[in-house]
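Hi L., both proteins are below.
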Amino acid sequence: MFTDPALLALHAILRTGSFEAAAARLNVTPPAISQRIRKLEEQMGTALVQRGSPCTPTATGARLYRHAEEMGLLSRALARDLGQPVAPATLRLAVNADSLATWFVEAMAGVEGISFDLVIDDEDHSADWLRRGEVLAAISAQPGPVQGCDVHPLGALRYHATCAPAFAARHFPEGPTAEALARAPCLTFSLKDRLQSQWMQAACGAHPAPPLHILPATTAFIDAARAGLGWGMNPAPLAAPHLASGTLVEPKPGLTLDRPLYWLVSRLAAPALADLTTSVRAAARTHLVSAQQEEF
């Protein structure tokens, strides 16, 4: 039903963001790209690309983009198995920011021939991208179920509640009580972020509603905590040197949270992504802590 040139054109547009950049990537003229997309849209009976800066897919366009990625990954796997030169393939996957900042780059670096297109989302919601068919794999805090996906338990990313020493002395002179936590400014990655709420429940048995600073960047959490802007949950690999030097302290020493993580991968794409799955699991063994998890 679909011709490779048309799928390549669609993939290139959505990968580069424009018809002109797609034409340059495929070494054809922009009118040729437009013609391919027009014919493909006629075949499908619907628009596939929303023109803009950058161009974005319609719902059908996004599904075809994923199909093109699957074809590229399968071609890559076949070439590898036959001992032929491996052409680069693109993989769109969802990952939480803290994993990306602490261990997932090592997993990506462990494979060759894949260009990564990362979607950053909270680990409690990254699996939703798989359910919608917008990515082929995800790092998630939820093991499933996600229909048509394989699930690999990875271990847990440990978090410490941290703040500056002066912040702790000012806001927690008697420790992180419910009253103190209700008043002390809190750092959160987004309104989806539940880590701080879970830690407060563990620390004081309540759910205070503190004033929030919303900072959607992992390194900004460390910087903001050190600057005394608020307290927040930081991954152990990033927090450890600051706790050791004393530039950060724990409001309640020893009370940590472990977030189990899972590698979810589309079952159709799993054989083509076997080397990446191996690399993800190896990096997780190095950087994550053991967690009580169920095999899937």
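That was the first. Here is the second:
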Amino acid sequence: MTAPPTVSIVMPCFNARRHLPASVGSVLAQSSTDWELVAVDDGSQDGTLEWLQAQTDPRIRWITQTNQGVSAARNAGIAVARGQFLAFLDADDTWSPEFLHRMLQGLEERPDAVLAYCGWQNIGLAGGKGEPYVPPDHETADKQKRLFAACLWPIHGALVRRTAVVNAGGFNPALKNAEDYALWLTVAAHAPMVRVPEVLAFYHFHGGAQASAHKARAALHFLRAQIAYLATHPEFARALGRGTARTLTLGTLLRRGYECYWSNELAESRVIFRAVMKHGYGTRGDWLYMLPALLPLRWHRRVIDMLRSRRNNDT
């Protein structure tokens, strides 16, 4: 049997046939060649598995399972991965050719670090959006609070030691969104991490059913991950205090509800507003916006139209 590679790349694939030439191509183009790609076909029906089976590079391995979701697919890949380090690349995203080289270099320079993260760029956003972004150094005194408040890099913008992921229990299959946030928080809150200040990862927006399109689900699963973390880390919850904890959890949820509301995604905002109200959070002004979410959708739209008409008449 050949020696294990330095890096195992885990790629969950669900009906991803049209994206695989680009994503797998970006792996094949890596300047660092000591890797294996573990592609997990998650019950695809579009020829994904057949495309993977047709690949001839021996570093590309594939396994298949019935459709169980992205977290279960990644966990299945982790279970058979042989590398010392793990990277996660979704089947519709890509890397710079220097991604593995620079990330490995970052961890070699900091052998105590459990994880390296880099900059990224969103590709395909309308309106000319998507400037390259290099995140700040998060290895600070308030790192745990920063990690708790937000997902600080995309899933494919990190390289992590396999032992750390295994010790953390991998990805939570119950989460359809925020599963990477929950893992990074568990892995890096109490262990050093290192920043690679270069844009090396690319997130591609397209017309498919991407997880990022389910905004209400994403917001609620993020809250679920936060609540679970507070429950298992009571000392951190005490250090935050009830007010700060509610601001970072329910305040974040409310902000995401407003983002949907003001972008005319009313159905998504209604789901979020109802969840916020269930927890009794928000100011009187917030509740004036949220309460109509308890009405049937068509009545809610009428309330909004009436308020807009009144506001226009006042001006």
